[in-house]
Hints:
Order of helices and strands: EHEHHEEHEHEHEHEHHHHHEHEEHEHE
Bound molecules: nicotinamide-adenine-dinucleotide
Number of helices: 15
Number of domains: 2
CATH architecture of the largest domain: 3-Layer(aba) Sandwich
CATH topology of the largest domain: Rossmann fold
Radius of gyration: 23 Å
Amino acid sequence: MVNVIGLGYIGLPTALMLAAHGVEVxxxxxxxxxxxTLCAGKTTFQEKGLDxxxxxxxxxxxxxxxxxxxxxxxxISVPTPxxxxxxxxxxxxxxxxxxxxxxxxxxxxxxVVESTVSPGTMDKFVRPVVxxxxxxxxxxxxxxxxxxxxxxxxxxxNNRTIGADDRATGEKIQKLYSSFCQGEIVVTDIxxxxxxxVVENTFRAVNIAFANELAKICRHDGMDVYEIIRICxxxxxxxxxxxxxxxxxxxxxxxxxxxxxDYPELANVIRExxxxxxxxxxxxxxxxxxxxxxxxxxxxxxxxxYGLTYKENVDDxxxxxxxxxxxxxxxxxxxxxxxxDPWVQCDLVPNQYxxxxxxxxxxxxxxxxxxxxxxxxxxxxxxxxxxFDTRNVSDLPGVYHL
Length: 402
Ligand SMILES: NC(=O)c1ccc[n+]([C@@H]2O[C@H](COP(=O)([O-])OP(=O)(O)OC[C@H]3O[C@@H](n4cnc5c(N)ncnc54)[C@H](O)[C@@H]3O)[C@@H](O)[C@H]2O)c1
């Protein structure tokens, strides 16, 4: 039996996928209301294919509880934020989850940490608590690569990395993941597995920063960054990403900071890239100010942000560019802008709308912060509005860009 610890965006689909493929699974989360929701047969976030996967896993007997189980395999999937001051990983969640497991697990069990961790975390933080317990256990790091919005497909098809102390343990866990994973599963050592995951997200962050910097350079001299990137990408060895209003989520806006925190003298490109991405919401605010002046607008209450989530077609708002922008505004004591997002049902910020038409009726300038399918499909509703499209998804004439 596998006990999956942490039933959030990563732990829940992983537990369900294993269960749906015939593995006996118990999911444990210390959030009692989350467990209650799952036990009542409801999923806790929106994700393509998740409800169907949930139904299949329930049929196969998956269980949810707040109790840690006595078993031989644990998968830990808890948050790994970074310390905002030192930029180093805050491994506290992983350590506390490991300590909870250690209280119940038998000798010989394997603890798999799926959470993204900085290189050295398993040795520095997890191994010492295992050694202190006196139990003889196997440690594995099996980072997750799936993208919200396409998690179920990617769980099935992505290649994976398993880092273990010895080949036999690595292969045992490789076999477990191959119960559902059709991609290649590479077995390596723990430090390599830790570093590869962080490097993957850092690669994305640096390349997004490059596109964001190009957007600023092009804005400065009136060049069309999208046309320039389109033409550059016709070169066989060039693949520039798209600029945007900032970077959010629990991965690309977080993990590269681990390297800055651990290697402050060495991680210079990475530090500057993260700063570039983090500065984008303020750049969007400056553009809003410019566009308002160009259109003779003075009333900030007639400006609305479309989108609160960190990317399109998901309900995850963690570290989202819109939240960063609103925070930036708050620091300047400005009246918060109106906001609407079809994926966010709860009231998260002031001046938030839950109806697109009502939102549009109350604003003259619409800032597209997220390219949800909803707005792509109903772009004509923005006819007659001033539109500032930070995602380059609108084909309306006269749209403003970054
Ligand atoms: N969200 C993503 O897109 C994504 C993608 C790849 C990797 N990751 C990594 O996966 C890890 C988990 O991220 P997430 O987005 O699923 O986080 P999350 O916040 O959605 O879920 C974490 C869950 O763990 C639970 N939890 C925390 N400590 C616990 C403990 N001691 N015992 C029991 N439950 C506990 C919380 O209640 C929560 O439900 C992070 O390291 C993240 O970097 C996330």
